[in-house]
Amino acid sequence: MSRPERREESPQSVQALLNYLVYTGEKPASYGGISSSAAVEKRKGKYQEYPMTIVDGRAIADQLSLEREGFVFVNHETQMCNFYDEDEIRSIYYRETEQLVKERSGAQRVLVFDHTLRSADDARRDEKNISGPVRNVHNDYTEWSGPQRVRDLLPDEAEELLHHRFAVIQVWRPIRKPVQREPLAIADGRSIGTQELVPSARVYPDRVGEVYHITYNPEHRWYYFPNMQRNEAIVFKCYDSKTDGRVRWTAHAAFDDPHSSADAPPRESIEMRTLAFFAPES
User: Fold this and answer.
1) CA-to-CA separations, 196 to 78, 271, 278, in angstroms, rounded
2) Could you give the angle at the alpha carbon of 170 between the alpha carbons of 164 and 173, nearest 5°?
3) DSSP helix, strand, coil percent of the chain (3-state; round to 5)
4) CA distance linking residue 133 with residue 90, whole number of Å
5) Domains and CATH numbers, the chain
6) What is the tens place of the pLDDT at every residue in 164-185?
7) What are the C-alpha distances in Å from 20 to residues 30, 46, 147, 161, 276?
């Protein structure tokens, strides 16, 4: 995979640690649908933190492309009042997300199929039974699991749909206060080589999926959007069936921003997962 040319270091950047997989030959595994403590105990895989430069992406937000870097940063107002209300998410935010992904990707049809709430606050996680930020560098779908989700979710249409281009596109946003702790870092997809993508089992009580965990390469180019507000979102690709040179996936992870104050509120966020289907000529 081609890599972007090295640019001069941006003065608007931070040095921070990102948690990469150290590949030992054993297939990594992570667990969902169980308590956080149980998931940590059962996890398989060795990880190591590496210092990386993470650039403030706000300075280049208007230059980003889903097809080139693999992600875009958007201002996006929502009619949501309470992101902890499951019915409200499904009745309002699913529809808003599908429209946003259509507009940003050019897809003909978009289907939200899942969402995950996250909090960096232990008490809120226990109260709401939700997940914490993911600190391992990863991409949520693989060459196998991207098409498999279409088969799982749309079995009657899958074989026809898989003859044409489709993508798994996610949307990430804060749900209450601005994000000042554990923001999301996302890599320019052109800087991630296929040799750094290690298939990793994602085990749920009722099924086994697969994600990519990422091994370290100093050439990875990382971005974040500091102090993200509730009306801002990152739209990013986790899989694209098209193999014509456009970015097919990204990598992302939570990290400790060295600019965060000790009393900054814990991060609270939501990520939406969508299937995006394109016209045959796309």
Assistant:
1) 36, 24, 28
2) 160
3) 20, 35, 45
4) 22
5) 13-277 (2.60.120)
6) 999 999 999 999 999 999 999 9
7) 14, 9, 26, 34, 29
Q: Name the pTM for this structure.
A: 0.92
* 194-212 pLDDT per residue, tens: 999 999 999 888 889 999 9
Tallying the residues shown for the chain, one arrives at 282
- Please work out, in degrees rounded to the nearest 5, the angle formed at the alpha carbon of residue 54 by the alpha carbons of 53 and 55: 115
Among residues 141, 198, 197, 202, which one has the least CA distance to residue 168?
141
Given the structure tokens 């320019």, which residue do they identify?
188
The tokens 């990594």 sit on which residue?
A: 28
Geometric angle at alpha carbon 254, from 253 and 260, rounded to 5°: 150
CA atoms within 13 A on the CB side of 58: 11
**Quick one: which H or E segment has residue 168?**
strand 166-174
Please choose, from the candidates 87, 64, 106, the residue with its C-alpha nearest in 3D space to the C-alpha of residue 233. Answer: 64
Question: What gap in Å lies between CA 177 and CA 267, rounded to an integer?
Answer: 8
Hey, how many other C-beta atoms are within 10 angstroms of the C-beta on 16?
A: 20
